[in-house]
Amino acid sequence: MTDYLAGLRAQDPAVAELVGEELARQRDSIELIASENFVSLAVMQAVGTPLTNKYAEGLPGKRYYGGCWAVDKVENLAIDRVKQLFGCNFANVQPHSGAQANYAAESAFAKPGDAIMGMDLSNGGHLTHGSPANFSGKLFDVQSYGLDPDTERINYDEVAERAQRCHPAVIIAGASAYPRLIDFERFAKIAHDSGAILMVDMAHIAGIVAVGLHPSPIPFADVVTSTTHKTLRGTRGGIILWNDPAYSRRLNSAVFPGSQGGPLEHVIAGKAVAFAEALRPEFKTYIGQVLINAKALGRGMESRGIRLVTGGTDNHLVLADLTKVADGQVSGKDAEQALERVGITVNKNTIPGERRSPFVTSGIRVGSAAATTRGFGEQDCERIGELIGDVVAHIDDERVLDRAEAEVKELLAPHPLYPELG
Ligand code: PLP
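Above: inputs. Below: predicted complex with pyridoxal-5'-phosphate.
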């Protein structure tokens, strides 16, 4: 077996030891954070290459540095593959992260002081969709939309009414914690009827969109942003996609020089590898299993009396409302800690109509993308959902926690993570 870290261990044992610690943590727990996944060894290898040494400000063929012929080919390969994957005309693969992609897309279409409209953070939107703590909330006049309190789903009529009233420059569709399909065609009509640009942030669902198991925003949105590391299962990073050549200059220049310097060509190589993986038929099978597993996680939790926000899921994530658990005494934060103690990693999350602070919350968000990569199937996931229910209902009962911890170890045993890493 190759010792992937041998060189690092020899040169810098302190860092190698910490990498080993994190690898052990990933191996010894069931990863249910909905925004995470496990990349292939090939993706990891592409990121750890001499491409990290190269400055390449600009775009392929139009760089501000010499010696870019090889990285030009890398970046063009990533662009070609991502265009094929999502069926769009143009792509910029340089954003260092989803937040960077969103900054570039928003600033390409809205001036400081203009109104923007996204889903608010407490209802499942992302910080970059208008949170006061983020550039988006500081630069723009934020007119957020929430969810219908009865259905806990997007109320498109209300979004339309608000858009007509506020005339935002940009409407953002997409979320970090929304378990249902999003109607991008409807969003496009709302945006265009009110004179707004439609930006879709498909960070969470990109892998599902790529294989056609969630309707694609590409035919409807003016600009689409995404991360590459969630359901898409690539290295950490961002992308921007669009169809209209009239937008190319402003979007490309909003990335560089607008908000970034030199692109991370080693990361772009990792993105290229992941895009090729997502183009293979096996990736569609994988995503199909992700969707089955998310429903199974939800069923398991429901069987223990946990309410699922919207009653279920159409994608890779489930939002669990803990307000009926143990007479409402268990917060999302308590649940996150108790689950970590037994080897299940989730994150606390606000739920629609949240009464607790975002640091405490009344819910947890649970996703199936990483566990599915690891090889867990439907039955495993239903059982994991039941275990979550047992743990959150008995967070102070050491016997329950010990039993759950032992079962987590049993569930993990047949699914080794990165066995090639020794
Ligand atoms: N957009 C959405 C919908 C997200 O959920 C996230 C991160 O979770 C981002 C953007 C930001 O991505 P990054 O952490 O790469 O900046």
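The chain is about 45% helix and 10% strand.
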